[in-house]
Each structure stands twice: as structure tokens, then as C-alpha cells.
TrEMBL record:
Residues 723-789 form the ASPIC/UnbV domain. Keywords: Signal. Residues 1172-1252 form the Secretion system C-terminal sorting domain. Gene3D superfamilies: Integrin alpha, N-terminal. Transmembrane segments: none annotated. PANTHER family: CARTILAGE ACIDIC PROTEIN 1 (PTHR16026). The keyword Signal applies. Residues 1022-1157 form the DUF7619 domain. This is ASPIC/UnbV domain-containing protein. It comes from Chryseobacterium aquaticum subsp. greenlandense.
């Protein structure tokens, strides 16, 4: 026989015994090294043998009269009820005053007991095991449904225990119980009834045995737990339940009937376990065998979605219930399984344990992989929102680990970052986007060293920047940048790279006219025209924005499904999920709104997918497409803030299934952004996830598989330095995959610029086609798999040309003939698309001797084409192509946009852009702008020519007019001003704005001359309440004179607009002592308290509370402080407190008033009562004085307690040092009713009736 204990995932031997039949062995912690193990023990024995085990942990000294135990005894068949038992008898307990319930007399000694219970009646013999009844032998006849008490006196116990009751000889105190019918046996040596157990004497009509084929598991392993049920008689109304604890997940559970038919169980996953239920089962037949097989899989986490991180001793418990002869019986068996949840070697991902990386916690929203020092290995950059916390760099040590990177100065409240080679010098430069406290920071990368350069146009302003992304949107081979503002009081920004890293802020296009609480932007050429388009997710109820690149640096919003949805969107990612050669879009939403998936139809339009598993929701933020399993299609990963993450595997056709087994799908932290890289160069993608609220960030290593792969590093020579916008097509047999290089994905996270392709079982790539952002097309053939391939952009012939109007139709460009700007030209056969500049020039790259140039029907030109022979073309030459205008008049267009209109503010920004879209000069036009009369405008950039008021549909309006003068072709004029509102508007009102451009001549397209927009009135509103603790009792809130009061002032933005700052003013009542003020806590870190006289002003700056409708958790806040009443306040003095709360510059809002009143001594005494426990009393009584309304309203202490009988005679008196609770021990002769009198330290007396139990 072996005794083992469980230590660190393994069974460790404790002791081994070699025992003959009815021989005993024992293990006592005190005598075996004086040890105490908080663990699980296991007892095993030779196959086919049976062991009786008695476990006790309340032996105290081990001497009679000191231990206190009770337990049901198992029969030799392992059941509660049976005919034969072998049981250990613990030292008899002191039962001098215990009444025998069968006789009514006292035991008057020390005894142990075997209580024998029979359902049907039985004859029972109890005898000592070693001598088979020579030293102890008693027989009992038990009538049906009665019990007998086999009491063992101290002398009887000693007689069969070596004559001494000690282990000095070979005997151990074991008794054998034998019965002719089934009985139940309870073993007890109670002193004072601490424990009691119950069992059934009903004989079992079915038995159950269990086994598991593997009891030590790691995640993904699939053991089968088998429970075999054997019936003796018929079992009616049977039900079976399998309960599986955390660490295991049910794959399948079934009952195999005697005829080999099968019944499947119903599986239900709960937060703390999984249940399998079998209901409505047919009657179990007698003398039959039923087998319950439950296949489970080991998991890395718990059912509630949390990662476990330790070894779990899980159980699979099978419970069978049924009726036998009308009586309910139940059998339970549990199989234990050890799950090593941290061993993830059979999963796709394992968490990287890195001492350096794990030594930091952060408040990080975003994370990026980028090769900072050009050694070919991606390094890691993590932003931190902490005001004084630095952003961190971890340099790849090329061996799977990291070293500490360059230490950068504190950048401020950093939200995200984006990297690109903005100066085309061969290394990636860094833009850090900050939230309000500091401007953005830019770092130029000088051969691996980051050098601060804050001269850029995008580092000059302070705003709530939330995301940014680089792309060459004007195809001049330099990376430009878009930045979004979360506050709708600020426009989004577009900055154009003018010359190797110098930028200028664009203000006239459609993009910087929006202010929509934007986050997580991404660039993508969704219509494959060679121009980077922009998607911007918008929150605060605004629809999302997909801007189409119209060429020459201009954008417009098309009427498609993407621009018709939004409101809660925060992140986005593009990928070709169905391998059809174009980019599909996934959008995350930050509330319970389901996430969006849009399939690209290939013609510039999209179809919303609504029947996919990816249409889930749950505070989603980051998202990314990546071929995680190298099977040749893009899978999808989504980070959710406070719940499990989403991992979806692609079937190759854009259909997804969810995986909930991987560690990355559990709730391992509060996470927004993430990024992918094969940072260890083993051919699979590894994952880095940022976590906020001072948690550890995570890196998950891809454990790999046997699928082939290819990774491509692009080295640009003509394109922008990071090759952003370049498309790579990898063709293997019938499958062609496409990747487009981007600088951002998801929620401010940047994955590696190295492009990863899973190839399945393809060992060779037939063709790699690279469509560089410059327009150069490059092909490679017969490329081997499983390599990191560097592709350098080749040198090709650069052809330059001019588009002109052939006014004399001779086909030759004359000096007098005007050039044509903004002509869209398609180059055949490469299908590259280029636009002519303002000077009419264009260029493209080719290796062809013959090309066809097609002028597309865009920007007021008719379609046309010409074929050119470039065999003898020289770079100094120019080719000419004639164009024809579709309209000889002017084409004026109006665009406008404003920041949020906040009630009470006069600095709401608004811009109107009038542009000439034609190729002719507009000599004159009038701009008209109509708004409700409750809106006023100030600080106009151009003087108002006319202002008029009118009434329409019973509403008052004001129309402002400006004379626009002449406007050259493709030029524009911008009018900017501030708007304000009067007191008649309310938060939530919606105002109609109308802009109209009136052309003095005929207009080629009047559809874009009029624009109608609606603007809601925003404001932050507070429910303003104040709480006090304790609030006191009664309507007056009575408290003690020296009661510490704790005030909590709560605020919540239930308006429709985020607020930046919150101010709270509390004019402390004169009854409170300002010198005892203490700040207890606050909802936000950056809170200050200023005290002037009795006035406390709390300021919470830059907290940026969103409206409740956007984020109910983050819309709330509070400050809590404590303060004492002044000493010496008179009884019944009232203390009334209230506060004022303001959001930004809104008016102060008053809270409710809370009242406390100083309690009088008389009130305190009147409300004080005696608390006695227990009552009735046995031998010991505990006494204290309590206030009827709560213990916090009195601090009375007891100095004396008296016990007085019904005749007024003092029976007992005890004096104490002043104590809040006292104890009195009652003499044995006291019994019946008494009066307890308690005196406090003020010599005030209180009484209570006391009942003392009858004792002997």
C-alpha cells in the first residue's frame, strides 16, 4: 500500500506499507518530521485488494477526551450502505455530561460510537478485527428504520488496543461490523458535536466504477473518462449528469447501452464548469451494464475566459440518479485529471517568458514591430499613456529575446505611433501621437539612432490625436501622413510630404473638413487604381468615412455601404480574405455593436457580410488579418478590451470559424492594439499585444507547423522608402495571394513591413509579381519556399509626357496649345494609372517597347487613347497625348465641414471650400450659407457681402453671402469662421446648415453646387450627486460627535459630447474641521485639490470623459475625501453639505444636499441595547452593547456584568476593564431564566433576559 501527496504537478511518495489481511499501518504528520501538508493525498494498494482508510485532522494530543471527529464508514464494496465494514475507532471523547438519546441517562464517561442504522431491519455483530471478537464482541438487533448505538467505552477501547490505548504493541483499534442486511454506519467520538455526517442504509441496486485513459494532460490532449454502471435491479426515472471542472472542455459525451445503441448528452458550458445532462432516459434494466464515455480536451484557461497560468487538478464527476422500489438512489464517482495549463507546446501559440520584457507594466494602447537598426530583425516599440512614463523600445537580440533599446525622453500621453521612411534614406522614422499634454513627437532615424525633430508641421499643435498612418497618397514617391482627432472640436489632419521629409498641412480637401471622434485609420488602394484611399473609423454616433483618392491629391466620399454605417467604430484592417486580388475591410466597434465585415466586389463597391461568425461584438478595438497557420489564406484576430479575444480561421474562401482554444483567445489582459511579425525568423507569425491600466504586455510565440512559407522584404529605389502601397502577388498553382504594404492596421498597431505568405504544401512559388508604389512592375519565377527573400525595386525606363488640348486638331503639340492638368491616364499593358500635374506633365515606368495610353473619362475629359512606340525612347524626350474637354463651361463645387457645435461656446470651427472643377476660369460666383437664427458666426476669413433674415416653415433663419470673385481651373477658395449659439438651443437639438454656390455662368455639374448638413448641439451633462458615509440614522442622519465623515462626489457625462476637464467646488460647512481634510481616492490620476479658507476646489484635467452612450464605464468619475466635525459641537447640530460640478466651461451644476446631525447622549443611551450570544446560553456567554441603528453610532464599553435570578437575587457578578465585548463563564448549577444587567463606562445600566440551558 502506498501513500502519496501532490506537489508541483506530480505525486510524491510519502510512505509505503506492506500489510497482511486486517493488519494496520498509520502515518502521523507530527511523528514524521512534525509536518503539515496543505495538499491532496492518494492511497493506492495492490490490484484486487481493498483498503479501509481513516483520515483525521482533529486528534489534538491524540489522548482520549481531546479529539473530535465524525465520519460515515464505507462498506467493503465502497458504498455507504453495505453488509460488512472495517473501521478505525478514534480515542473516546469526554462525554461525562452527554445524554444518551436512547436511554435519557448520562454517559458519565469517555466513549466512541458506531451508530448503526437499518432501513429494513438487521442483526449486526461488532467485533475487534485482530482477534475476531475475542476482546470486543457485541450483537444488536435493529428494527426497521431504527438505529443502534454501539458505544465503546474507554476501557473497552484500550482492551483491543494493546491494553493501554497506545501504539506500544502490535494492535490498532479496528472493529469489524457484519450485518445480515444493508446498514449505514457512522463513526464518532464527539466531545461537543462539532461535526456530523449523514449516509443512507438503503442497499445499492446499481454500482459505478470509473477510469480515465490519461490523467496528466497538457492543452489540446483528449482523454476519455469512462464510467461503468452495473445494475442489480430495475432503475426507473434514471438521469445522468456529468460535471466537468475548469481546465477541461467537453468534446463529446455519450451513453453506450447494453444493446450497443448510443445516447448523446446535452452539453452546457457555465462560468465555472461544464455540465452534460441526460434526461428522459428509459428505465435501466436489471443485471445490465451501461457505459458513460465523456471525451474532454485540456484547455489553457477557465470557462469564464480567464487564463489560468497554473496546474489545475480538475475532475470529471459522473452522477447517476434513479428510483429503486420507489426509493431514490444516487451514485457519484469522480475521476481526477491534472492539467498543466502553462504547457502550450501543442497549441499554435505559447506566451514568451522574457525577463526584460516582463519586468515592465504599462498603460499602453498600441504596439509596433519595426526594424529600427536595419539588421533584418524586427524590434518592438510600445507607447505608454502615462504622463511621466516613457515609451519603450525592445531591441531584437536575433536569438529570440530582447535587449533594452534607446531611452527616449518622455513624449507625453502617447496614444499610438506610426513608422515610415519619410526621407527615403533607407530606415524607418517614427511619429508618436500624443493626447493633449504635449505636441506629437517625430524622430528621424539616423542609422538606428532616433533623433528628435520637432520642426514638422504635424508636431506643432496640441490636440487629442488618437491615430495616424503614413501613405504616399499623391504618388510622388514620398510618404505623407494622416492624423485623426478623437475630439470632434478638432479637425482631422492631412500632411503632405513636399521634399524628403518636409511637410505641409493640407486644409482644403474633404479629409481635413471632418471632425468625427476618429480613431484607427488605415490606407488601402481598395479599387486597384494605384492610388491610396483612406478609411477613418468614427465614434460618437458619426458614420464612418471611406475617402476615395481622386488623383492629384484630392479625395471624395462615394455613396457606398461603408459610408452609411458607423457610430461606435474605433479600428480597421484590410486584407484579401478570399484571394480574389482585392482588399476587403473589417471594422471594429468599441461597444456591444457587432463588428463589420465588407467584401470587396471588385468594382469599387462593397457587400456587407452579415451571416459570418466574425459579426460578433464585445468592446473590440484592434484587428488584423494574418496567415497564422501558413495554409495560404488570411485569418483574423481581434483584441477586445475586457473580455475574451476573437480568433477566426479562414477556410480559403473568406469563410471563418472561431477558435476558442488558443491562449490568445482568452482574457489575458485589458488590450486594444496588437501587431504581427516573424521576429524570430522561423517562418511563422508571432503576436505582440499591448495592455493598458498598468498590466504586463504580451508576446505570443507561434509554435509553427509543417506548412511552407515565404517572407518578402522590399527595398525601394524609386517608390517611397517604406514601399507603402506596393502590392505583392504570390501565385502557387491555382492560388494567388495578395498583400499590400501598409503602415498601420487595427487600432494604432503596426505589423512588420516584412510581408508574410503561408504556402500550404507548395514547395515552389510559380510567380511573384510586385506592383511597386512607383508604378514599376517586377516579376520573379520559380522561387523556393521557406525563405526570407529580399526584392529590390528594379531600374526601368521612366517615360515622361504632357497632356494638352489639341486646339487645331493637327495631332502635334504647339507652343500656343494649353496643357491639361488632372488628366487620368491608364498605361496599357501594365494598367498603371497616373495623373497629369498642374503643368500637364506625367510619367510612368515601363519595360515595353509599345504602350497604349488611355485618357480616362474623369475630371471633365472625354475618353481617348494613343499607342506609342518606345523602342528608341530617350529619358530626355517627352511624349504628347491630346485630350478633349467634355464641358466648355465652368464646374463649381462646394464642400464644407465643422467641428462639434457645443452649447455655450463661440469657438466652434467651420470651413467652406469652393473649388473650380473645370478647365475654364470662373469669373464670378456667390457663396450662400444658411443657418438657423440661433447660430451666429464670427471671425470670418473673408468679409460677409450680405446678411439677411427670413422665416421658413415657421422657423427663423439667417443667410450669409460672400462674393467669391474669379477662380482659376482646379483652384479653390476657403472661407473659415467660428460659430456660436444663443440660449434658445438645447443639448441634442439638430441644426440644418445649407451651403450653396451660385455660378454666374452655366455650370457643367449642378449636383455639387448645393450641400445640406445637419449638426447636433453637443454638451456634457452631469447627474451631480454627493454621498456621505455614514449617512446617519433617521431622517436627520444622526451621528456621533467625533464621527469621521466620508464624502463622495460623483459625476457622469450623460450628454452627447466628450468633456475634457471637470471642476468640483465644495464649500465645506462651518461645522466641519477643514484641518482634518484628507483625500481618500479619485477615479482619475490627474486630480488636484486646492483649499482656500473653507472652499475646496477639485480639478480633474484632461480626463476626456466620453458620453455615456459611447462608453458607459469611462463616462463616470468621482472624488472621495474624509473630514471630521469640529470638536465641541452641541447636540442636534446639523451639518449640511453640497457641491457644484462643471464640465469644461459649462455652467456650475449644484448637487443634492446631504445632512448629518450630532446625536445626543440621551439618544445614544436610548438606542443602545445588550447583545447576548448565544441565547439560550450553554456555559459561556459573550456580551456587548450595540446601537439599534448600527454599530458605528456608539462606542460604549462594558465595565460590569451581573446575573440576577427571577427573585432578584444576584447570582454572579464580574467586573472588567472597559471593553467593547466581554465573556462570562456560567457555573454548572445555573439553569433557567435570569436577568442580565450590563453597566457601561458612563455607569449607565442596561438589562436583557437570559436563558441558561439545562446542563449536568
Amino acid at each position: 500500500m502506498k501513500l502519496d501527496r501532490f506537489v508541483n504537478r506530480n505525486w510524491v511518495p510519502v510512505q509505503t506499507f506492506s500489510l497482511n489481511r486486517l493488519a494496520a499501518g498509520d502515518w502521523v504528520g507530527k511523528t514524521n518530521g512534525n509536518v503539515s501538508y496543505p495538499t491532496v493525498f492518494r492511497v493506492t494498494c495492490s490490484e484486487g485488494k481493498k483498503v479501509s482508510v481513516f483520515e483525521g485532522n482533529w486528534f489534538e494530543t491524540g489522548s482520549p477526551g481531546t479529539s473530535d471527529m465524525a465520519t460515515m464508514v464505507s462498506s467493503e464494496s465502497g458504498t455507504t450502505a453495505g453488509k460488512k465494514f472495517l473501521t478505525y475507532i478514534a480515542p473516546p471523547g469526554n462525554e461525562t455530561n452527554v445524554t444518551n438519546p436512547l436511554t435519557g441517562s448520562k454517559y458519565n464517561g469517555s466513549f466512541s460510537h458506531l451508530y448503526l442504522f437499518s432501513k429494513t431491519g438487521a442483526t449486526v455483530t461488532v467485533k475487534d478485527a485482530l482477534t475476531n471478537g475475542t476482546k470486543f464482541n457485541k450483537t444488536f438487533t435493529i428494527t426497521p428504520e431504527k438505529y443502534a448505538d454501539c458505544s465503546i467505552s474507554l476501557n473497552e477501547w484500550k482492551a483491543f488496543y494493546n491494553g493501554t490505548g497506545t501504539a506500544s504493541g502490535p494492535e490498532r483499534p479496528y472493529l469489524i461490523v457484519e450485518s445480515n442486511n444493508d446498514i449505514a454506519v457512522m463513526n464518532s467520538n464527539f466531545n461537543d458535536n462539532w461535526m456530523c455526517y449523514t449516509g443512507s442504509s438503503l442497499g445499492h441496486s446499481f454500482t459505478q466504477t470509473g477510469s480515465v485513459n490519461d490523467d496528466t494532460l497538457i492543452p489540446t490532449e483528449l482523454p476519455t473518462v469512462v464510467s461503468q454502471v452495473k445494475t442489480g435491479g430495475e432503475v426507473t426515472n434514471p438521469s445522468v449528469e456529468v460535471i466537468v471542472q475548469e481546465g477541461l472542455k467537453v468534446v463529446e459525451s455519450k451513453i453506450i447501452n447494453p444493446n450497443q445503441s448510443q445516447t448523446q448528452g446535452v452539453v452546457t458550458e457555465l462560468n465555472d464548469k461544464t455540465k452534460v445532462e441526460y434526461n428522459n432516459l428509459p428505465t435501466l434494466q436489471p443485471n445490465s451494464t451501461y457505459q458513460i464515455e465523456t471525451k474532454v480536451v485540456a484547455t489553457v484557461g477557465a470557462n469564464n475566459g480567464e487564463l489560468v497560468g497554473t496546474t489545475l487538478n480538475s475532475t470529471v464527476e459522473t452522477v447517476i440518479t434513479g428510483k429503486v422500489n420507489g426509493e431514490t438512489q444516487q451514485s457519484t464517482i469522480a475521476n481526477s485529471v491534472s492539467v498543466q495549463t502553462t504547457n502550450t507546446s501543442k497549441l499554435i501559440f505559447s506566451r514568451l517568458e522574457n525577463p526584460l520584457f516582463d519586468s515592465f507594466t504599462s498603460n499602453s494602447w498600441t504596439i509596433s514591430w519595426v526594424d529600427i537598426n536595419n539588421d533584418g530583425y524586427d524590434d518592438l516599440y510600445i507607447t505608454d499613456m502615462g504622463l511621466t512614463a516613457p515609451n519603450r523600445i525592445f531591441m531584437n537580440n536575433t536569438a529570440g529575446g530582447f535587449t533594452a533599446g534607446q531611452v527616449l525622453p518622455e513624449d507625453g500621453v502617447s496614444m499610438s505611433s506610426t513608422w515610415a521612411d519619410v526621407d527615403n534614406d533607407g530606415d524607418e522614422d517614427l511619429l508618436v501621437l500624443n493626447n493633449t499634454r504635449n505636441p506629437n513627437r517625430f524622430y528621424r532615424n539616423d542609422n538606428g539612432t532616433l533623433v528628435a525633430d520637432n520642426t514638422k508641421s504635424f508636431t506643432q499643435d496640441v490636440s487629442y490625436y488618437h491615430g495616424g498612418a503614413f501613405a504616399d497618397y499623391d504618388n510622388d514617391n514620398k510618404a505623407d501622413v494622416f492624423m485623426c482627432n478623437y475630439f470632434p472640436t478638432k479637425y482631422n489632419e492631412l500632411h503632405r510630404n513636399t521634399n524628403n521629409g518636409s511637410f505641409v498641412k493640407e486644409v482644403t480637401d474633404a479629409i481635413p473638413l471632418e471632425a468625427n471622434s476618429s480613431l484607427g485609420p488605415t490606407w488601402a488602394d481598395y479599387d486597384q487604381d494605384g492610388l491610396m484611399d483612406l478609411f477613418v473609423p468614427n465614434g460618437s454616433g458619426n458614420k464612418n468615412s471611406l475617402f476615395h483618392n481622386d488623383g492629384n491629391g484630392t479625395f471624395s466620399k462615394k455613396n457606398n455601404i461603408i459610408n452609411q454605417e458607423g457610430g461606435k467604430s474605433v479600428g480597421s484592417c484590410w486584407g484579401d480574405i478570399d484571394n480574389d486580388g482585392d482588399l476587403d475591410l473589417f471594422v471594429t466597434n468599441s461597444n456591444t455593436t457587432t463588428n463589420f465585415l465588407y467584401k470587396n466586389l471588385g468594382n469599387g463597391n462593397f457587400q456587407k457580410i452579415t451571416n459570418s461568425i466574425v459579426n460578433q461584438g464585445g468592446s473590440s478595438h484592434g484587428c488584423s488579418f494574418a496567415d497564422i497557420d501558413n495554409d495560404g489564406d488570411l485569418d483574423l484576430f481581434v483584441t477586445n478590451d475586457r473580455i475574451r479575444k476573437f480568433l477566426y480561421f479562414n477556410d480559403g474562401n473568406g469563410n471563418f470559424t472561431e477558435n476558442r482554444d488558443e491562449a490568445i483567445t482568452y482574457n489575458f489582459g485589458l488590450s486594444f492594439g496588437h501587431a504581427w511579425s516573424d521576429y524570430d525568423h522561423d517562418g511563422d507569425l508571432d503576436l505582440a499585444v499591448a495592455t493598458h491600466s498598468n498590466q504586463k504586455n504580451h508576446i505570443f510565440i507561434n509554435n509553427g507547423n509543417t506548412n511552407k512559407w515565404l517572407e518578402i522584404n522590399l527595398k525601394a529605389t524609386e517608390s517611397n522608402g517604406s514601399a507603402i502601397g506596393t502590392k505583392i502577388f504570390v501565385e502557387t498553382g491555382s492560388r494567388t495571394q495578395m498583400r499590400e504594404v501598409n503602415s498601420q492596421s487595427g487600432f494604432g498597431g503596426q505589423s512588420s513591413y516584412t510581408q508574410h505568405f503561408g504556402l500550404g504544401n507548395a514547395a515552389t512559388i510559380n510567380t511573384i509579381t510586385v506592383k511597386w508604389a512607383s508604378g514599376i512592375i517586377q516579376k520573379l519565377t520559380n522561387v523556393s519556399a521557406n525563405q526570407i527573400l529580399e526584392i529590390v525595386e528594379p531600374q526601368q525606363t521612366k517615360v515622361s509626357g504632357i497632356v494638352y488640348f489639341d486646339t487645331n486638331n493637327d495631332g502635334v503639340k504647339q507652343d500656343s496649345e494649353p496643357t491639361v492638368s488632372r488628366a487620368a491616364i491608364k498605361v496599357v499593358p501594365t494598367n498603371a494609372k497616373v495623373y497629369s500635374s498642374d503643368a500637364g506633365t506625367f510619367s510612368f515606368y515601363t519595360t515595353q517597347n509599345d504602350v497604349e495610353l488611355r485618357i480616362l473619362e474623369e475630371n471633365g475629359l472625354s475618353a481617348g487613347s494613343k499607342v506609342f512606340d518606345l523602342t528608341n525612347y530617350q529619358p530626355s524626350q517627352k511624349i504628347f497625348i491630346a485630350a478633349t474637354s467634355t464641358c466648355n463651361d465652368t464646374d463649381l463645387k462646394i464642400n464644407m465641414g465643422g467641428t462639434a457645435i457645443r452649447k455655450g461656446y463661440t469657438n466652434n470651427q467651420f470651413k467652406i471650400v469652393v473649388s473650380n472643377q473645370s478647365r475654364n476660369i470662373s469669373n464670378s460666383s456667390i457663396l450662400k450659407f444658411t443657418v438657423p437664427s440661433s447660430v451666429n458666426i464670427i471671425s470670418q476669413s473673408l468679409p460677409i457681402a450680405q446678411q439677411e433674415s427670413f422665416v421658413e416653415n415657421s422657423k427663423n433663419y439667417t443667410r450669409y453671402s460672400w462674393s467669391m470673385g474669379s477662380l482659376n481651373p482646379f483652384n479653390n477658395k476657403v472661407i473659415s469662421f467660428m460659430t456660436g449659439t444663443d440660449a434658445s438651443v438645447s443639448v441634442g437639438d439638430e441644426l440644418d446648415f445649407k451651403g450653396e454656390i451660385v455660378n454666374s455662368s452655366a455650370d457643367c455639374n449642378i449636383d455639387d453646387n448645393l450641400l445640406m448638413q445637419k449638426y447636433p448641439i453637443y454638451g456634457a451633462i452631469d447627474p451631480n450627486d454627493i454621498l456621505v458615509s455614514p449617512k446617519g440614522y433617521g431622517t436627520e442622519g444622526y451621528i456621533l460627535p467625533d464621527q469621521l465623515l466620508t464624502y463622495t462626489i460623483r459625476f457622469e457625462n450623460v450628454g452627447n459630447f466628450a468633456t475634457q476637464n471637470v471642476s468640483i467646488i465644495d464649500n465645506i460647512p462651518q461645522e466641519l474641521d477643514i484641518n482634518t481634510f484628507k483625500m481618500v481616492s479619485a477615479s482619475h490620476d490627474n486630480v488636484s485639490a486646492e483649499i482656500i479658507d473653507n472652499k475646496i476646489t477639485f480639478k480633474l484635467e484632461n480626463v476626456f470623459l466620453p458620453p455615456t452612450s459611447v462608453d458607459s464605464d469611462r463616462s463616470q468619475g468621482y472624488v472621495t475625501f474624509s473630514i471630521l466635525p469640529k470638536k465641541g459641537l452641541k447636540e442636534d447640530t446639523k451639518i449640511k453639505n453640497s457641491a457644484f460640478i462643471a464640465f469644461d466651461d459649462e455652467n456650475l451644476l449644484k448637487t443634492n444636499t446631504v445632512t448629518n446631525t450630532i446625536q445626543s447622549k440621551a439618544q445614544e443611551q436610548e438606542m443602545t441595547v445588550v447583545h447576548l450570544y448565544p441565547n439560550p446560553v450553554n456555559d459561556v456567554a459573550f456580551i456587548r452593547l450595540e446601537h439599534r441603528k448600527g454599530s458605528e453610532y456608539t462606542r460604549k464599553k462594558i465595565i460590569k456584568a451581573e446575573v440576577i435570578d427571577v427573585n432578584g437575587v444576584l447570582i454572579l457578578e464580574k467586573n472588567f476593564s472597559a471593553s467593547e465585548e466581554v465573556r462570562i463563564d456560567l457555573p454548572l448549577q445555573i439553569k433557567g431564566y435570569y436577568l442580565l444587567k450590563v453597566t457601561d463606562s458612563d455607569n449607565k445600566a442596561y438589562t436583557k433576559k437570559m436563558i441558561v440551558k439545562f446542563r449536568e
